[in-house]
């Protein structure tokens, strides 16, 4: 499989006196894969997601490169990776707090339609039809009525479904889900993970799934990258990382979830 994105010697520094918050990192995001990035809070996993999407705060120091040979190849056959991806059209981003990413004074249908109109160059009526279709695809109850609903009228799980619909409405090549399930209860978490998997597979997208939960990662990912203290300490196929972890930190994550009984997760990862 070819690389959608190639990350080379990437280091991120927020505060020079504190040193690098992340890196250096060298790895590829493979076209069409589902890659989970896991680790505790402060491990650097969300920093990586924001760096890939170009959403790091102003003043952040970025060393190294993120190249996009997959995007360049799709555009013009040139694999130099120099094209800068466009959020919405090339990258869809689902944040942890859906309420914070949705406009509280705009109906959710209009918010999705704006994404469609901006990136797919459709007229307003066509964009609204596409928005309602997206609400149906994410299985929001009564999509027609939901078009006119405001975020505060929806449950947490429903808001996250709307956020996912907005993130994929323009047909991005890469979907980044940054702790998209951590604010939800266990049952809704499982539903959202299944929804993300279905949309990614139906649309042929690549997925970067950021989570602190190795059990959720095992259900979803083809590969798992383990982050600790700003470093990627392990990267491998899901079955290998779950069944034969190489790093002590990975083993501690597994122990915290399943007492080192890997059989349940191996069954999900196969």
Describe what you observe in this structure.
A hairpin with an 8-residue loop joins strand 1 and strand 2. The protein is an alpha/beta fold and 270 residues long. It is 42% helix and 22% strand. It has a domain at 99-172.
What attributes does this structure have?
alpha/beta, 12 helices
Helix content: 40-55%
Shape: globular
- Quaternary state of this entry equals single chain
Low-confidence stretches: none
How would you spell out the order of helices and strands? EEEHEHEHHHHHEHEHEEHHH
Number of discrete helical segments: 12
Q: What is the strand tally?
A: 9
Strand order of the largest sheet: 5-6-7-3-8-9
The mean pLDDT is 89
Q: From the alpha-carbon coordinates, what is the Rg to the nearest angstrom?
A: 19 Å
End-to-end C-alpha gap: 20 Å
Report the portion of residues in β strands: 15-25%
Strand count, sense and barrel status of the largest sheet are:
6 strands, mixed
Structural class: alpha/beta
